[in-house]
Write a structure and sequence with these properties.
about 280 residues; TIM Barrel; six-stranded parallel beta sheet; two-stranded antiparallel ribbon; about 35% helix; globular
Length: about 280
């Protein structure tokens, strides 16, 4: 009975998490419309688009809880995105390469892209990983380390499930793992990510746990894209070198390494981001 109650509580918690994400992405859509001057890239300067995905499902499985859900991109769209990048000669680069490009102006391939996933869903392994492997691409998962499972779970298309630590170890041949906090993916009373609202020492302790679990990562993505001077200071003191928002802009040399943009692939297409790309 206790185990059943715990499982029911977990299902409720996951459902609440999805609803919170929906609320945030509705807000983000409005904000992005206001920021239309940010959309597009300056073709005269080298830049790197950083693509952001979350949960991947086949189109015919996007029903119920996931229908019209802003954290879900269809497998068919993801396959098209990867095929289009590959056909146009794009190469995936690591966060270390991106760091060197931003901070030191290092040279990288002229057609570079970074592919990222937030949260750490099991669908990233089931659906995204084979597509990336076939293309010879790598990607980054910003994991909620406090939500990862101790043991692998049986995959289901009707629920949000998280990766397990044994799976994370296995997936490192394709994915680099970075922090999305340990357990601070929720909204505060003011509608902002809770990491911006809690005392600095609490944010620091959460980040330290996450970094430790990920064997010393120096990369981070802000939950909901929200950050403040306080959270920036916490990240810098922990040794974080790159941090990502959800602002729809590509990354240029000399950009603020603690507030880099990413393109939400639920909101945008590759033709929006790379106008010259051949279909």
């Amino acid at each position: 009975m206790k185990r059943l109650q715990e499982e029911q509580m977990r299902v409720v918690a996951l459902a609440c998490g999805v609803l919170l994400m929906l609320g945030w992405f509705t807000f983000a859509t409005v904000r992005m419309e206001v920021q239309t001057e940010l959309v597009g890239s300056d073709s005269t300067r080298p830049c790197v688009p950083v693509l952001m995905y979350h949960h991947i499902l086949p189109q015919d499985e996007i029903t119920g809880l996931f229908e019209d859900n802003n954290v879900v991109v269809s497998l068919e769209q993801f396959e098209r995105d990867i095929q289009l990048l590959k056909a146009n000669g794009y190469e995936t680069v690591s966060l270390r390469q991106l760091n060197d490009f931003v901070r030191d102006g290092a040279e990288i391939p002229s057609k570079s892209v970074v592919i990222t996933f937030d949260d750490g869903y099991l669908s990233n392994k089931v659906y995204a990983m084979p597509v990336l492997e076939e293309a010879g691409y790598t990607a980054v998962i910003f994991a909620l380390t406090g939500w990862m499972e101790e043991h692998p779970q049986t995959f289901r298309t009707d629920a949000l499930q998280y990766l397990s630590w044994p799976e994370i170890k296995e997936m490192r041949r394709v994915f680099q793992f970075a922090s999305h906090t340990d357990n601070m993916h929720s909204l505060s009373w003011n509608g902002k990510g809770i990491m911006t609202a809690v005392p600095k020492e609490d944010a620091a302790a959460d980040l330290q746990r996450s970094v430790h679990k990920l064997q010393g990562t120096v990369y981070f993505s802000y939950p909901y894209g929200h950050y403040s001077e306080k959270t920036r200071d916490v990240l810098l003191k922990q040794g974080i070198e790159l941090a990502f928002t959800v602002n729809p802009v590509s990354v240029y040399r000399g950009d603020d390494p603690m507030a880099l943009g990413r393109w939400d692939m639920y909101q945008y297409s590759l033709t929006d981001i790379l106008p010259g790309i051949a279909k």
